[in-house]
Amino acid sequence: MRSKGFLFKVRKYRVLLLMLTPAVLYTLIFSYLPMAGIVLAFKNYNYADGIFRSPWSGFENFRFFFSSGQAFKVTRNTILYNLAFMLVNTVLQLAVAIFLSEIRGRRFKKITQSVMFLPYFISWVIVSVIAFNFLSHDYGIINSFLQSIGQNKIDFYGTPKYWVGILIFFNAWKAVGYGSVIYLSAIMGIDTEMYESAEIDGANIFQRILYITIPSLTPTIIILLLLAVGQIFRGNFDMFYQLVGTNGILFDTTDVIDTFTFRALIRSNDVGMAAASGLYQSVFCFITIVTTNYLVKRVDKDYSLF
Amino acid sequence: MGKRIAVLLLTLLVTVLMISACTVRERPADGNAQPTQSQQKDQDSQTTGIDTSKSVSLKMYLLGDGAADVDLVYGEISKILKEKINATITVDFLSWADHDTRYPLLFSSGEDFDLIFTAAGWGHYEQTATKKGFYELTEDFLNTYAPDIMKVVPEIAWDQAKINGKVYMVPNYSIEYGYDVIGVRGDLMEKYGIEKIESKEDLEAYYDAIVKNETDITPLATQGIGLQYPYLFQSRGWQVVRGTPLPLILYETANPDNTTLVSVIETPEFREYAHKMKEMADKGYWSRDSLTSNDTRSDPWVLGKAASMVWNVNNVSYYAQQINKEHPEWKATFVDIAPNVKRPVNPYTNNGVAINAISRNPERAMMALNLFMTDKQVYDLAAYGIEGVHYKAVGDDMYTPLDDAGRFPAETVCNWGWNNENLKRKLYVENPDPVVIKVQEAIEKWKNELTSNHPLDAFSFTEDNVKNEVAVISTLTTQYFDPICVGIVEDVDKAIDELIAKMKEAGIDKVLQEAQRQVDQYLASKR
């Protein structure tokens, strides 16, 4: 009887289930199945024995990461950059979404939105070339300009301190258009009656934004932040590697866990050590997200993810 | 309840998928030639040879981007193989751009192929062999299936190919030098009255003249790091120990009695070199963006942005000819800043071919390789293309490219794995570029007078025991070593002290000790 109940439900929700299938399969194939590969982090992998029969090596694979004296630095960089990205991107995305929603001209609105969205489609490889043409010491646009007005050139690729700003800027440039769409759709979902009554009560535009739009967006903001927190130990490899590359001078402020691991293992291709570094990130991401979710839950149950 | 059943179904699915994934990867427990040994004994007793009644098709992976007529040429080769050993062969290429990632993937995914190009140091040899990706080539196996190769490849080459005492590749037989020369512009030398460049001082005089007088061209554009080998190592008769992480551990190749390894960063010579590089960078010999630039090594010289290029003699001569074809007025040529220092021949393992550990037909693969390396017909096809289409044979040992040579350029379609000095043809042209003659003369002189003969020239380090240390050192090299080598650090001495401190923390001493231990063991086994 029970199985009939199950099959009945499957029939009843078949369209919804069908729509869900691709996402479930995707997660299954690319997230759950490879999880078995975690064992590699504790193994001395060789081709002949494969993943499951290679000899165990305990925590040996983790040693390169912690014995380098770099573990603290790259972990710190990764977290701080991700926090900065979260903060800057969220503020900018919110601002853009609110501006766009308040703009009346339909055509202007569409064009602005498209132009802001475009960078999202540009790959980091291209962005790195654009950045190089702006920042290069010899031919860069910025330095050519500085020279033409009689100022000293700035050595961007030799000075680590500029890169915090540069990386945050390019990340925001690429992410703002895309992220603002999510907030914009959330704003569209806000009941317009609230705005109308506020207007009648004499609220000006800033008061409407401050007291209606932002509070209504809070759940969306929190969910997106929670999702971002889940990635806080992962550096955006594409971005860091393309923009900074192998320019060691800049590593103090630009080296993240992913780029460090890449450099360490590109020669030896040791999958065990790569798995160890990935596991380190995953475990800490997991701890962070569970903790954050717990804290959010304590403040307001409705805002938490699970 | 429905939920629980769904979970159960999912778990089942996962298990099934995982098990099936594992069985695909099944490999022999050891990439070893055990079964063939007993077989081989039988064959020794029958002198008639090997059973090739079953027709097999072989697959080979090569490096590079291939050429238009690869399939055509290998079709011809297949015809010969079919006749001689009842096998056909197809080839596939791992491009320069992504062979670093695809090569290990071929082995971890259990791809079905038989032969693959490999090279110690730069072509995945040590890494794949220690992870048991290659089929072990025992002496019996080689003698049975590749007797002609055994006559060609010198004894020392097999020593060089040994990883933990076992051979996994057939090394090529060619005499090459990895020694770096400096490609320069003849017109600029004439313009500034520089007659010859035979020392660092001469070279710097040339560079100084360019920095002072030219506006659109700098000495090295973005490639200042290229001076590392000639300045720091080769001009002093030093050589980096093969297989060690990056240019950090060296021995003195010019002095065969000295087998002590040295960590380069702690030598006073390194400090001197670092100061020199800083001085050069400050003078504007190369761009401050050098570490970020995506230029290839040859771009700046070929495009006329740099007055010189540092690379090994073959590559410099190749690009010099290209320049002289496009801009004859530049008079590209090359110079040697240490013309009297001894230099080692590249190890024979610098190119080679290995057999996949899970190959279905390792015996036939070995026999095919035997033909590739020693059969003149097959050798010519793989190296120069089809006679009459891609090249014209001039006598037995020379060739002239024909109009279609671009569809299968001679000696560039990764035939290096089975290079055979005895079968190689020389380029024959009516009016050769003077660079070509200069290269031939130089190499002749190196062979006769300047070849070092150090016992460690054949040694190769394996990093298995210290792989954690090596991983860290690799990343620290990019961070602390390279900036010093392109002279963009502010305070050289401070930067060196920091480099040394970081390297010590990362365990460079342990790596050095391990390398020395392997060296001593290697030398003891030679006695």
Describe this structure in words.
The complex is a heterodimer of chains A (306) and B (527). Chain A is mainly α. Helices cover 70% and strands 0% of the residues of chain A. Chain A has a domain at 70-266: MetI-like (MetI-like fold, Orthogonal Bundle), CATH 1.10.3720. Chain A has 15 helices and no strands. The two termini of chain A are 31 Å apart. Chain B has 527 residues and is of the alpha+beta class. Chain B folds into two domains: 44-176 and 347-423, D-Maltodextrin-Binding Protein, domain 2 (3-Layer(aba) Sandwich); 180-343 and 456-526, 3-Layer(aba) Sandwich (D-Maltodextrin-Binding Protein, domain 2), CATH 3.40.190. Chain B has 20 helices and 16 strands. Chain B has helices at 2-24, 34-45, 70-85, 99-108, 125-130, 139-145, 147-152, 155-160, 186-191, 200-213, 228-233, 268-283, 299-302, 313-326, 362-374, 376-384, 434-450, 467-485, 492-506, 508-526, and strands at 56-63, 87-94, 115-118, 162-163, 166-167, 169-171, 180-185, 238-240, 249-252, 262-263, 308-312, 332-335, 352-355, 391-394, 398-401, 426-427. In chain B, the strands form five sheets. Chain B has a five-stranded mixed beta sheet. In chain B, helix 15 packs across helix 16. Chain B is globular, with a radius of gyration of 26 Å.
Write the layout of secondary structure elements.
The complex is a heterodimer of chains A (306) and B (527).
Chain A: H1 2-12, H2 14-32, H3 50-53, H4 63-66, H5 71-102, H6 106-117, H7 124-135, H8 141-148, H9 162-188, H10 192-200, H11 205-229, H12 237-244, H13 251-254, H14 257-265, H15 271-299
Chain B: H1 2-24, H2 34-45, E1 56-63, H3 70-85, E2 87-94, H4 99-108, E3 115-118, H5 125-130, H6 139-145, H7 147-152, H8 155-160, E4 162-163, E5 166-167, E6 169-171, E7 180-185, H9 186-191, H10 200-213, H11 228-233, E8 238-240, E9 249-252, E10 262-263, H12 268-283, H13 299-302, E11 308-312, H14 313-326, E12 332-335, E13 352-355, H15 362-374, H16 376-384, E14 391-394, E15 398-401, E16 426-427, H17 434-450, H18 467-485, H19 492-506, H20 508-526
Parallel strand pairs in B: 1-2, 1-3, 15-16
Antiparallel strand pairs in B: 3-13, 4-5, 6-13, 7-11, 7-12, 8-9, 9-10, 14-15
Helix pairs in contact in B: 3-16, 15-16, 18-19
